[in-house]
Backbone:
């Protein structure tokens, strides 16, 4: 050894060897890290190329990128998305993602891109984006919820249920969401007979996490007898529109006559004759119609619209998930008086 390395016995030489080794390791780590980051960046870009930005031209492709553009362009993309201009919004998000190098800086923009795809109805694209985010940030709660919405809309109930596992680990309370998804799964189940579904639905009425309105609505389509027998007087105001639009042939007069509220609803509707004692529902619009009827007029009807308790938006049709903010069990039924128009056979079922 002494012949090969004459200064081997010199302690300074040993220190030099150690320093060289440390330098080699440090440089290798740096090069490997850079290559890995570049590969990740390229993978994401390749993935986003699948979305073919040419579909959504906004003439910004040639615009030189500056980091100062990130904030204003993000806000502009969000504004487009809120106005329903999804293609312009998507195009801006893709432009930003293409030009931002660090994945952590892209996370928020990817979230917004995924949400915009979701709102625009590109469910598979939304799923891909959300999975990309979760691949890198599996604890992203908002994305986990959004992914669940995508699977719900795709009727992939088991996958939707799977999104609850990480949410539970992250200590999110998912009891109502789990009930919501399981009810979707039950109602979609083609293997079960109607009788089996009815039995399962009846059992769910005992579970506070299941939305009463949804269960009763399903029962009215499957078994009128069970549905009428499952009506809970203190929850009638949450299903008043369903009851209002029931065809007269679907009424159960025995049950109706045992409840003052039900009597008032169908007296107002004109399906039953005036009673000796005028029933009161304590639902303002219903009681007003009855009062007007007593004056001999019969030209007032009810119209319903539906509000979301969470985002306060209103919609003309009923929903199980708010179309705007995707909240569950947030529906508020609002009945208003309107002039009666001729209509036949309209039902919510
Ligand atoms: Zn809402």
Residues:
């Amino acid at each position: 050894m002494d012949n090969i390395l004459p200064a081997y016995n010199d302690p300074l030489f040993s220190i030099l060897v150690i320093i060289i080794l440390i330098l080699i390791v440090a440089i290798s780590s740096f090069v490997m890290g850079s290559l890995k980051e570049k590969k990740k960046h390229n993978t994401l870009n390749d993935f986003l190329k699948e979305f073919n930005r040419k579909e959504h031209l906004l003439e910004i492709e040639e615009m030189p990128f500056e980091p100062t553009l990130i904030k204003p362009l993000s806000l502009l993309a969000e504004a487009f998305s809120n106005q329903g201009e999804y293609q312009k919004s998507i195009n801006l998000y893709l432009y930003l993602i293409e030009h931002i190098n660090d994945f952590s800086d892209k996370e928020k923009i990817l979230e917004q891109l995924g949400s915009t795809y979701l709102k625009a109805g590109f469910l598979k694209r939304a799923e891909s984006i959300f999975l990309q985010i979760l691949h890198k940030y599996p604890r992203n709660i908002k994305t986990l919820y959004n992914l669940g919405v995508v699977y719900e809309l795709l009727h992939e109930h088991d996958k939707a249920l799977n999104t609850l596992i990480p949410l539970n680990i992250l200590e999110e309370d998912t009891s109502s969401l789990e009930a919501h998804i399981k009810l979707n799964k039950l109602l979609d189940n083609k293997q079960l007979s109607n009788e089996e579904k009815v039995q399962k639905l009846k059992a769910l009425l005992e579970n506070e996490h299941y939305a009463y309105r949804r269960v009763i609505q399903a029962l009215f389509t499957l078994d009128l007898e069970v549905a009428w027998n499952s009506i809970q007087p203190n929850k009638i105001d949450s299903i008043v529109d369903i009851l209002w639009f029931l065809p007269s042939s679907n009424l159960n007069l025995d049950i109706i006559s045992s409840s003052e509220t039900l009597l008032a609803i169908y007296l107002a509707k004109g399906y039953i004759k005036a009673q000796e004692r005028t029933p009161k529902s304590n639902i303002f619009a219903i009681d007003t119609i009855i009062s007007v009827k007593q004056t001999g007029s019969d030209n007032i009807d009810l119209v319903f619209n539906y509000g979301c308790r969470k985002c306060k938006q209103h919609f003309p049709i009923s929903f199980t998930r708010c179309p705007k903010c995707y909240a569950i069990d947030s529906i508020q039924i609002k009945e208003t008086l309107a002039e009666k128009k001729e209509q036949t056979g309209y039902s919510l079922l």
